């Protein structure tokens, strides 16, 4: 596949079942324990309303979050990420102050058969573009210190480590690193 074979677009609220399916597949990936803050069992136990709310809250039309997917010609989804808008003067989920309007990229996942072909850069670029359109001054994400493949992908999209680190919740002897892209 080349990047021309994918259509990168925002999810639609009605697509909540596909959102759930892709997320549950991501949480069964061998990289999931380092990549995601949620376990498969936890996500699988959530009811339909949770997924409907998620698809509405990050679907096209939402100003505060955007989930992008890479769609194949047959309608299946090869990968996804979500950009959350964070506002200056608020606190992030770790209790740290947010100092400027920024995008926060989460839930980054590309199905194994679509890795290494440039799709992730297309997805990240689209997420960053949306954040700039929403007035973000920077875009950030957190990546586990040992998730070197993801770090490589983010560097290729222009992100660099900010120096900020957050203890990894599954093992506080390890850290997640903040990577940033300034406007
Ligand atoms: C993270 C992810 C989206 C990246 O997409 P990808 O298509 O695999 O990324 P790419 O192959 O384009 O880029 C990775 C880069 O890191 C390099 N890399 C791969 N494995 C590596 C390793 N173990 N150590 C160092 N560099 C590595 C690759 O060589 C590549 O660089 P190159 O193209 O210059 O060779 C995808 O691997 C994925 O979904 N992983 C599982 C979920 C995950 O980890 N999500 C991120 C959470 S923060």
What would your notes on this structure say?
By secondary structure, the protein is α+β, with helices and mostly antiparallel strands. The protein contains six helices and seven strands, in the order E-H-H-H-H-E-E-E-H-E-H-E-E. It has helices at 16-27, 32-35, 40-44, 48-57, 119-133, 148-156; strands at 7-10, 65-71, 77-86, 102-110, 138-144, 160-168, 171-182. It has a seven-stranded mixed sheet, sandwiched between helices. A hairpin with a 2-residue loop joins strand 6 (160-168) and strand 7. Helix 1 packs across helix 4. It is globular and about 40 Å long. The two termini are 30 Å apart. Coenzyme A binds at residues 29, 31, 35, 108-110, 115-116, 120, 143, 147-150, 152-153, 156.
What summary fits the major beta sheet? 7 strands, mixed
Structural domain count? 1
* Number of H/I helices: 6
> Cα-atom Rg, whole angstroms?
16 Å
pLDDT averaged over residues = 95
Structural class given helices, strands, pairing?
Answer: alpha+beta
Shape: globular
Helix fraction by DSSP (H/I, runs of at least 4): 25-40%
Bound molecules: coenzyme A
CATH topology assignment:
Aminopeptidase
Spatial order of the strands in the main sheet? Answer: 1-2-3-4-5-7-6
- CATH top level is Alpha Beta
The helix/strand series, from N terminus to C terminus, equals EHHHHEEEHEHEE
